[in-house]
Design brief:
Chitinase A, domain 3, globular, 2 domains, Thrombin, subunit H, single chain, 161 residues, isomerase, 3 helices, mainly beta
């Protein structure tokens, strides 16, 4: 089955910082990555490179920050009052959360520092500003269910490898 819009794609990959060779992420550690192709839920340059490919396809894709996760934006580092986190059971460095922005959008943040009553959070993707090398293997390709298409993401109940 070929990768095209509306197919659930299962990937195994390793992501490296192209400039220093540092391994940034390995799906062997965190589990395979699933996405519905053509729904804008993965890096567009990678989706484009995988279009028309099939299970078993392996490739290496190099991305600039613009093609990947964008340039690092210092404006996305914010200090917040600890009192803004009253609804959280536990607050710790490395916690990721979604915040409502002034323009009505949502932004993902990761807590990078906690000092007394001030929490510093970074809204940049951890790979922002980096030249990346993805070593990708397509583990599976299947039709998305109507429910998955409606929700815009894969579901895992009843999924078989």
């Amino acid at each position: 089955m070929k990768i095209e819009e509306g197919k659930v794609v299962t990937l195994e990959f390793k992501v490296y910082d192209k400039n220093n060779g540092e391994l940034l992420e390995d799906t062997q550690d965190v589990g395979p990555f699933f996405y519905i192709h053509g729904f804008g839920n993965f890096v567009p340059a990678i989706e484009e490179a995988l279009e028309g490919k099939e299970k078993g396809y392996t490739t290496t894709i190099e991305l600039t920050p613009e093609e990947g996760y964008g340039e690092y934006d210092e404006d996305l580092i914010v200090d917040m009052e600890k009192s803004e986190f009253v609804e959280f059971d536990d607050i710790y460095e490395g916690l990721d959360f979604i915040a409502d922005m002034d323009d009505g959008s949502e932004q993902s943040f990761i807590i990078t520092k906690i000092e007394d009553e001030i929490i510093t959070a970074d809204g940049n993707h951890p790979f922002a500003g980096k030249d990346l090398r993805f070593e990708v293997t397509v583990s599976d390709v299947r039709d998305a269910t109507e429910e998955e298409i409606e929700h815009g993401h894969p579901h895992f109940h009843g999924f078989e490898d």
